[in-house]
């Protein structure tokens, strides 16, 4: 499917569909046996089925069912079984899929537990990379969404410590950025867009006067993931403080200057979303087209959801002018994952307050500024 989509081969797509059909009964047979269910080959099979669904049918949730099966299997195996190659590699490579599934299902992930943030690396602490620490923060977000949903469902105030949990996540991600900034200071450059060669163009001209280039693809990818995680926290904080204004204290600093061309520690969610778009061309060109584009599904979903369906960037992503980019990444009308950006409606149980519907931030929105203790 990946090859067929990247090269426009209908024959390859049909062959992938045939193999997918053959794999399903094999998976059923494997999970029925105790020994086979724990086998690494079964883990790989579930992973491949989930990836197939993610590439071919993003609008549906088939990939989510396979991802849930993968999550269940990994959880039952325990973190101690994922300390060595190749199990550790599968765990690290697909933690993002498991977290995406948890956010879409709006349920706390087992990955939020401390043992899952420590044990897989405990035999080699130096092997834990910046992206791994960043995903540690993302692990907590689906639980925060579940807590907010629960409060809305029963029509009561939020848990007293919910604002403190979000504030702690901001502390963690601010600290992460401060360490990342030292690494990225000389690894990211803002360059003038070339209107003759850029893919970031529509009927009105170039989308951005400047784009971002990086030292390597992994630096670009990690930076985009940071932006996506921060966007999610900013949206959750906005929702919480609008519905319960008392949560604005204790104060937390959401805007700090830095020595890179990027926003970094900021409350500008739309600006972070645009930075993801401004990084797409580099990722698309520097990673043999399809690989880099596919890897950015998660942050692009967040950027798309934050800017809204009718934004110029979103129209470009799904429009004719983005044909090459959209084909490689699977971005087509109806395939964007809206569930990754929560849209809430709250019945605030306080006199004098009605309902609140959260919408994408407008152009001038700045979230409540606070200052770290």
Counted up, domains total 2
In angstroms, what separates the terminal alpha carbons? Answer: 51 Å
| Outline | globular
Proportion of residues in extended strands: 5-15%
Secondary-structure map with pairings?
Elements: H1 2-7, H2 10-32, H3 34-37, H4 40-56, H5 62-77, H6 87-105, H7 114-118, H8 130-138, H9 141-154, H10 162-184, E1 188-192, E2 201-202, E3 205-206, E4 210-214, H11 217-243, H12 269-286, H13 290-295, H14 297-307, H15 312-318, H16 323-329, E5 345-347, E6 355-357
Antiparallel strand pairs: 1-4, 2-3, 5-6
What do these coordinates show?
The protein has helices spanning 2-7, 10-32, 34-37, 40-56, 62-77, 87-105, 114-118, 130-138, 141-154, 162-184, 217-243, 269-286, 290-295, 297-307, 312-318, 323-329; strands at 188-192, 201-202, 205-206, 210-214, 345-347, 355-357. The chain is mainly alpha-helical and 373 residues long. It folds into 2 domains: 1-116; 129-373, no CATH class. The strands form 3 sheets. It has a two-stranded antiparallel ribbon. Helix 8 (130-138) packs parallel to helix 11. A hairpin with a 2-residue loop joins strand 2 (201-202) and strand 3 (205-206). The chain is globular.
């Amino acid at each position: 499917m990946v090859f067929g989509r990247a090269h426009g081969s209908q024959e390859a797509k049909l062959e992938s569909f045939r193999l997918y059909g053959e794999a399903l009964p094999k998976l059923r047979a494997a999970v029925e046996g105790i020994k086979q269910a724990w086998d690494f080959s079964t883990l790989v099979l579930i992973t491949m089925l989930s990836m197939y669904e993610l590439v071919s049918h993003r609008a549906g949730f088939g990939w989510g069912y396979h991802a849930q099966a993968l999550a269940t299997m990994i959880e039952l195996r325990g973190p101690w079984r994922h300390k060595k190659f190749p199990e550790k590699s599968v765990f690290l490579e697909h933690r993002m899929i498991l977290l995406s599934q948890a956010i879409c299902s709006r349920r706390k992930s087992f990955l939020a537990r401390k043992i899952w943030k420590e044990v897989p690396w405990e035999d080699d602490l130096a092997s834990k990379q910046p992206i791994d620490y960043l995903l540690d923060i993302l692990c907590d977000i689906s639980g925060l969404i579940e807590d907010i949903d629960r409060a809305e469902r029963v029509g009561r105030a939020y848990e007293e410590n919910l604002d403190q949990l979000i504030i702690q996540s901001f502390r963690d991600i601010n600290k992460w950025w401060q360490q990342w900034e030292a690494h990225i200071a000389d690894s990211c450059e803002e360059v003038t867009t070339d209107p003759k060669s850029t893919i970031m163009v529509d009927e009105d001209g170039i989308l951005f006067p400047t784009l971002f280039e990086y030292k390597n693809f992994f630096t670009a990818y990690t930076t985009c993931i940071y932006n996506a995680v921060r966007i999610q926290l900013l949206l959750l904080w906005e929702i919480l403080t609008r519905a319960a204004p008392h949560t604005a204290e204790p104060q937390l600093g959401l805007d700090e200057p830095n020595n890179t061309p990027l926003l970094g520690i900021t409350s500008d969610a739309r600006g972070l979303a645009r930075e993801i778009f401004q990084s797409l061309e580099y990722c698309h060109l520097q990673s043999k087209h399809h690989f880099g584009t596919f890897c950015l599904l998660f942050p692009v979903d967040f950027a798309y959801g934050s800017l809204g369906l009718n934004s110029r960037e979103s129209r470009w992503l799904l429009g004719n002018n983005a044909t090459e980019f959209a084909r490689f990444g699977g971005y087509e009308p109806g395939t964007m994952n809206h569930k990754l950006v929560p849209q809430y409606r709250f019945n605030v149980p306080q006199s004098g307050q009605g309902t609140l519907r959260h919408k994408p931030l407008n152009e001038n929105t700045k979230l409540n500024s606070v200052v770290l203790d």
